[in-house]
Amino acid sequence: MELAMMGLGKMGGNMASRLLRGGHRVVVHNRSPEPVRAAEAEGAEAATTLEDIVARLSAPRVVWMMLPAGQVTEDALLLMSERLSAGDVLVDGGNSNYKDTMRRATLLAAKGIDLVDCGTSGGIWGLAEGYSLMVGGRPEAIAILRPALETLAPAADRGWAHVGPPGAGHFVKMIHNGIEYGMMQAYAEGFEILRAKREFGLDLHQIAELWRHGSVVRSWLLDLTAAALAVDPELSDIRGWVADSGEGRWTVAEAIDQDVPAPVITLALLMRFVSRQDERYAAKLLAAMRNQFGGHAVLKTE
Asked: What are 87-103's pLDDT values in tens digits?
């Protein structure tokens, strides 16, 4: 099949490469020229404008966006919707909020354009291993996309699924990322406890490798942990500052809206906030309170 890829960041560029290697015709468009030239070297066709994208594709056109969530995606979607025709398909493969996706799908449906939301997991490894694709949209639009989905996934019959109507793909990806927060935090805490037991002289990389085989806690995240520990067990070049993409926050908000207790995911999100504080005011106040009621010693700043 043929399609256009808008947004050639690391994941978007890799997805374009996987599609090209799978024999698909790919038109690419990106704000900066370097990723476009790299894609052209692999056989992609460069489109210089949004009108050029539309002109290069035959109906029904498929335009796949891999853009940051928020206003960037909103603007691109509206601009493309003004240029596409009834029967065309616009894919949002980024991490948009599912509520935005549902609203946008309604707007596009009025023009006869399908919005397909594709929650995409796989990171930098997706090019070689394939991507996990959580797809929301009308069945008719998914049928048009199916050849590309089968190429991007690890295999034609696994690693991708049509999970529901517009918005469902991004919703499932949101919960996926919330679970990921909890798993990552559990690994991080466990390895910190192991490291703290200095008298045993534990080799953290050895333990990670041990757990990768046969253990009930084995996972791809553990594989990646082992890879990081193999390079530097002390992680001496890495600051303990952890960002969040927003999907953990949305998952916690959804749990509250649905009256579903989600303490592990919630605490994992809050621990990311803790990581960004060099000197926590709350910790200072705790120390001051202990000093006030019990005369406990406090450490003074130098």
From this structure: 999 999 999 999 999 99
Beta-ladder partners of 160: 133
Task: Please list, in sequence order, all residues whose beta carbon lies within 8 angstroms of the beta carbon of residue 150, skipping any fewer than 6 positions away.
Answer: 156, 160
User: Of 25-29, 195-199, 286-290, where does mean pLDDT reach its minimum?
Assistant: 286-290
| 237-288 pLDDT tens trace | 888 889 888 899 999 999 999 999 999 999 999 999 998 888 888 888 888 8
Find the radius of gyration of the CA atoms of the chain: 23
Q: Would you put residue 5 in left (φ > 0), alpha (ψ -120 to 50) or beta?
A: beta
Query: Long-range pairs for 38-45 at CB < 8 Å and ≥24 separation?
Result: 38/8, 38/13, 39/5, 39/8, 39/13, 42/16, 42/17, 44/5, 44/16, 44/20
The stretch 7-19 carries a mean pLDDT of: 95
| Burial (Cβ within 10 Å: 0-12, 13-18, ≥19) of residue 208 | buried
For the question of whether the overall pTM of this predicted structure is more than 0.85, the answer is yes
Catalytically active residues are: 173, 180
Among 151, 150, 115, smallest CA distance to 136 is for 115
- The answer to whether the CB of 136 falls within 8 A of the CB of 117 is yes
Q: Please tell me the distance from the alpha carbon of residue 61 to that of residue 84, in angstroms, as a whole number.
A: 8
Rounded-to-integer distance, Cα 179 and Cα 183, Å: 6
Ramachandran quadrant class, 62 (left: phi over 0; alpha: psi -120 to 50; beta: rest): beta
Q: Which residues contact 244 (CB under 8 A, 6 or more apart)?
A: 181, 269, 272
